[in-house]
Amino acid sequence: MKRMQNQTMPVKKQTWRDKATYVKKNWQLYLFFLMPGLLLTIIFKYLPMGGLLIAFEDYNVIKGVLGSPWVGLEYFRRFLSSPDFMNYLLNTLKLSIYGLLWGFPVPIILALLLNRIRRTGVKKKVQLLVYMPNFISVIVLCGMVRMLLSPVGPLNKLLGISTNWMTMPSAFRTIYIASGIWQTAGWASIMYTAALSNASKELEEAAIMDGANLLQQIWYVELPAIKNIIVIQFILQAGNIMSIGFEKAYALQTDMNLPASEILSTYVYRIGLLNGDYGYSTAVGLFNSVVNVILLVFVNWVVKKLNDGEGL
């Protein structure tokens, strides 16, 4: 009888105090596992932040960061008063905003289409095809784009013309955004595809029984299942509007398309590494990062207002 009573006794729920006591008792074990990640984060993420002091100094390599003379906000005033400031800023914003508007819905649409493929073998083959471009390096992709759009390339032969598309500033943004969508849309759809697998099958069957068409099934059954992921991804992408990849923009850049292709990241590279003006280029990079943080906080606040208080 006593044995049966012991078997039916409820298990005591572990409280936060019990968990804290356990962690305190075994802190060496947690420290052992966390130390490598903490060290790498501190060395490669936090220690380099000391170099931001260069943005406020007339940096001299021999004198070092701590020995160089202080100039305050001189580089920021110089950049903001530069005649090219608005051009570089607008180029960066246009590439990012247009890329977000055109590129953000594509992975969602692709995931919804993949979810409609019922045959597992066919679905896996299609997924392989759409995921494959993500594993092509940026430089190889830019080389492919240059070959495709060269005056003697396949596109011009198909159209029967000999236009050098890479020298046209008006075509640069379309080339940049379209190639980016082709490369990343398939891989970006993985999260949405995984979330769609959790969509209620019973609700979908009920919608079909009630006569819902394909668009109604997507709107009322499938989109609510991935709503939270869509919100998080939108906040992250909108918060990184100023963080355009340097490699691709620089690899697609030519002397003729500079009016449209010169963005803040390529400008920092040209001023800092090619011209050796380290303080000024650091100030431009810091300005870019600060704007990014402000945009991230602002977008998160707006999404919370529009999404019943749910944000990042």
TrEMBL record:
Coiled coil recorded as keyword: no
Main location (coarse class): membrane
Keywords on record: Cell membrane, Membrane, Transmembrane, Transmembrane helix, Transport
Entry-linked PROSITE patterns: ABC_TM1
Compartment(s) where it occurs, according to its Swiss-Prot or TrEMBL record: Cell membrane
Domain ABC transmembrane type-1: start-end pairs: 89-299
Topology with respect to the bilayer: Multi-pass membrane protein
Superkingdom: Bacteria
Alphabetical list of Pfam families matching this protein: BPD_transp_1
Spans traversing the lipid bilayer: 27-47, 95-114, 126-149, 278-303
PANTHER family in UniProt: BLL4140 PROTEIN
Family stated for the protein in its record: Belongs to the binding-protein-dependent transport system permease family.
Protein name: Sugar ABC transporter permease
Organism (species): Blautia faecis
